[in-house]
Amino acid sequence: MPQYFLGVDGGQSSTTALIGDETGCVVGAGRGGPSNHAGAADGKAKFISAMTACLEAACAQAGLGSSSVRFASACFGLSGGPAGKEAILGEILAAGRIIVTTDAQIALTGATAGEPGLIVIAGTGSIAFGRNAAGQTARAGGWGYLFGDEGGGFYIVRQALRAALRAEEGWGPPTALRSVLLHATGASDMNHLLHLFYTAEFPRDRVAGFAKLVDDAAQNGDHIAREILHEAAQKLAILAAAVRRQLFGGGDRVRLAYVGGVFRSRLLLARFQSLVELDEGTQLQAPMYPPAAGALIEAYRAAGAERTLSDVPSEEA
Hints:
With 317 residues, the chain is of the alpha/beta class. The protein folds into two domains: 5-113 and 289-302, 2-Layer Sandwich (Nucleotidyltransferase, domain 5), CATH 3.30.420; 114-287, ATPase, nucleotide binding domain (Nucleotidyltransferase, domain 5, 2-Layer Sandwich), CATH 3.30.420.40. Helices cover 43% and strands 19% of the residues. It is built from twelve helices and twelve strands. It has helices at residues 43-62, 86-92, 103-111, 144-147, 153-169, 177-185, 190-197, 204-208, 211-219, 223-247, 266-276, 291-302, and strands spanning 5-10, 15-20, 26-32, 70-71, 73-78, 94-95, 98-102, 117-122, 126-131, 137-141, 254-259, 282-285. Strands 3-2-1-5-7 form a five-stranded mixed β-sheet. α5 (153-169) runs antiparallel to α10 (223-247) and α9 (211-219) crosses α10 (223-247). The chain is globular. The two termini are 27 Å apart.
């Protein structure tokens, strides 16, 4: 009887499932809604809905019945950590083994195809994570928008908002960020915008999405926007360096991958690369596979199998 393996990337914006066969070939992919914050009031229902949707879609593409298939092994990399989620997942699917880990862990495994290295993730928030050849792991950052997430999308927009407020109040240099943010949100002035950003209509991920406007302003010559992106790149490079020091020796050859929408900024990425490659031996690279594929690799490993993946979707769903 054929064996199948499941890898799932559950994040703040969407959840992606990949099903692999015994050879490492991806035979099914599916996507559901966000699956973080399972402990919130209605979080469990949303978590189950997202997981069920992506699993059913992946099973349909693979020609499998979602209610009848039993996976040899399944790995879930979840935003917000694994606490309290394994029991819920055991109610949703049948598997010989279920592993629940962090989204950073599977992102690293996917980015390096399971090899040792580092990853910096910068989307709404930010975190650096690494694993060396001995299997030791370390992290830096990822402590949320109130106390961390330096260099992430929300951080960038918060810095832009502060700069625009200072400009409007006359105690900061002029910047195009004020007009750009007002136009994008329809706010009449910065006071109006600030109050909008405190409402439920503008959750953190939506606010973080305005980071692209900061990049656009920088590309169009706004000095303040450019400084904000350079500072964000520096913060992310510091996180990477902190993890590198914990896991690798000076001069060791280390692969460092980057993941997340913040790195779509060419200005930020170029600055980030110039900073991290000051450490001799550090080599920046784009990820080899997406995080869901990293979860699938971990699922194979949990079953004692090492597989080279094939037919991995270029996008995760």
